[in-house]
Fold:
Amino acid sequence: GALFIAIIALAGWYAGHGCTWTSLIYGLTIVAGGFLGSVIDSLIGELFQAKYLKPDGKTITERRFEDHGENRLITGFHAITNNVVNFVSALMASILSSLVLLIV
Structure:
């Protein structure tokens, strides 16, 4: 996904400015940021995201409530849902990518 966005962004930059070192740095930063975001998402999801066991004792789910009942928390924290993980990983990747561009 990040590679596709980088290609579109670079095509727009190239149309207006031509191929420059700046466009290369921006493109690589977009791709690296997307990759970093996916790694951060996986790590936060595995370490902190709430995972629940359904009453059948066999099925693991992300949902706290299902079938008119509450599932039992087995790992993670109630407050850290998949939406929280996605938000935090996107925010962290964006901040880190921005810092790279400020340094370069």
Notes: The beta strands are 51-53, 60-61, 65-66, 69-70, 72-75. The mean pLDDT is 88.
